[in-house]
Design goal:
Elements: H1 6-16, H2 23-30, H3 34-42, H4 48-60, H5 71-83, H6 87-98, H7 107-117, H8 121-137, H9 141-153, H10 160-172, H11 176-188, H12 195-207, H13 211-223, H14 230-242, H15 246-258, H16 265-277, H17 281-293, H18 300-312, H19 316-328, H20 335-347, H21 351-363, H22 370-383, H23 386-398, H24 405-417, H25 421-433, H26 437-440, H27 443-447
Protein name: Pentatricopeptide repeat-containing protein
Family: Belongs to the PPR family. P subfamily.
InterPro entries: PPR-containing_protein, PPR_rpt, TPR-like_helical_dom_sf
């Protein structure tokens, strides 16, 4: 096995021994100059780890060293780290040349030195791609384009994955126009544009509400032969749903059909949420039926959305039917399911049915919280069943909850109208303790307090 020349070994032994520098070892360090550093860093028989230790030693011990590593030293070690696939360290080192020292080396000097040091086209391509990523990570987007154009003009292979990472960086920085421009640069330079690259740009456009532009972009990419997936179109559908843009939603669904893309579970989630939000509950219910027909698992959440939708439309009978269907389809009913049905029944004044669902809920050991209590008490109050509302309010207090003051106000008014002075006085006192005195002071005359 070949070893580095003896002077190299002496210097490396001192640096890599992890022991304090003694007077005897200082002479070896004092012999280190820039030329020797170049020779050591470029010596194939010195391993990469020791090269990195030596370089860091020189940087951290400038009081002992008579020189600073120059561009060649930086890039020689950088090239070795890239070749060894130690990309994290390579990026850190390159950042110190490009960013941390205020770009003290001009771009042409960096590129010409790298061209000399990189012996193969593969290492050259990897090195320049790392350079592109470092600029991107540091927010130097103009320099990214400078590196990209240099690589294109000099026949250096541009990695599509590195470009996708840059697109992600632009998306996080909310640079929609830059990401769109970069995507087209990739196309013009024959860089592989993956479906994921496209989806990143589409997501950025949708995030900014530019759904039409995202659809037009997708259609343009399809015409260029880029294959679509349901994931990209789901991003657009989700944006349409959240912004209630159902004109674009229909166009995107048409595009999906044209491209032969099938709905996945997430597509159904998006569409059910969107349709129920605008009152198209029957359409949402039809989608859930389609999921069952295709053997897909239907989540409780989707049924809950439909139940809420029917209750908002005052169709409690349909809501109860959907509730029953959940049992038939072995879909778990959770707290939100019961809250949806009970709220709907309370709003329509069907308090007897609401109590039946409450009992069923308790049988399943689903906890009744303050929201559920308030919903029921408010329902009784609206129906004029003040006695029942007051009794439930007492139960609520016993289990440690406090009713909303607006609900208490409704019950208190009812008690006063019924001349239930003792109960009204008690409730009023509780309300005063909770700081409601200024708002409800008018009741003092009614109660003769």
């Amino acid at each position: 096995m070949l070893h580095p020349p003896k002077p190299f070994l002496e210097i490396l032994n001192v640096v890599c021994s992890n022991t304090p520098i003694s007077s005897s070892s200082f002479s070896s360090i004092s012999n280190l100059d820039l030329k020797t550093l170049h020779l050591i860093l470029s010596d194939p028989y010195v391993n990469d780890s020791n090269c990195l230790k030596l370089f860091n030693f020189v940087i951290k011990n400038q009081s002992l060293i008579s020189f600073k590593p120059d561009l060649q030293a930086h890039l020689t070690l950088f090239r070795r780290l890239v070749e060894a696939r130690n990309f994290s360290q390579a990026e850190n080192l390159f950042r110190s040349v490009l960013i941390d020292e205020n770009s003290r080396y001009p771009f042409p000097a960096i590129t010409s030195t790298l061209e000399i040091l990189c012996e193969t086209s593969l290492i050259k391509a990897k090195s320049f791609n790392v350079m592109l990523k470092v600029y991107s990570d540091s927010g130097k987007f103009d320099q990214v384009l400078e590196v990209f154009d240099y690589m294109k003009n000099n026949g250096i292979e541009i990695d599509g994955r590195t470009c996708t990472v840059h697109l992600l960086t632009l998306k996080k920085a909310d640079q929609v126009e830059l990401s769109l421009d970069f995507l087209y640069r990739m196309l013009k330079s024959n860089v592989n544009v993956s479906e994921y690259s496209l989806s990143v740009v589409v997501a950025g456009l949708c995030w900014n509400g530019e759904i039409k532009r995202s659809r037009e972009l997708v259609q343009a990419m399809v015409s260029r032969g880029i294959t679509l997936s349901t994931i990209t179109l789901n991003t657009m559908l989700d944006a349409c749903s959240k912004r209630s843009n159902f004109v674009e939603l229909d166009l995107i669904l048409g595009l999906m059909e044209k491209e032969g893309l099938r709905f996945n579970v997430n597509t159904y989630r998006i569409l059910v949420s969107g349709f129920t939000s605008i009152g198209k509950v029957k359409e949402a219910e039809s989608l859930v039926k389609g999921m069952h027909d295709k053997g897909m698992k239907v989540e409780t959440h989707l049924y809950n959305l439909i139940i809420y939708g029917y209750c908002r439309a005052c169709c409690t009978e349909s809501a109860c039917w959907v509730f029953d269907e959940m049992g038939e389809k072995n879909v778990v009913r959770n707290y939100d399911t019961y809250l949806a049905v009970i709220s709907g029944l309370c709003n329509s004044g069907e308090m007897g049915k609401a109590l039946e669902y409450l009992k069923d809920m308790q049988k399943k050991k689903i906890e009744v919280d303050d929201l559920m209590f308030n919903t029921l008490i408010d329902g009784f109050g609206n129906k004029g069943l003040i006695k029942e509302a007051y009794e439930l309010l007492l139960v609520m207090e016993m289990v440690g909850f406090e009713a909303e003051l607006s609900v208490c106000d409704k019950v208190l008014t009812g008690l006063c109208n019924m001349n239930q002075t003792r109960e009204a006085t008690r409730l009023f006192t509780v309300m005063v303790k909770r700081g409601a005195a200024p708002k409800f002071a008018s009741f003092t005359s009614m109660l003769d307090i």
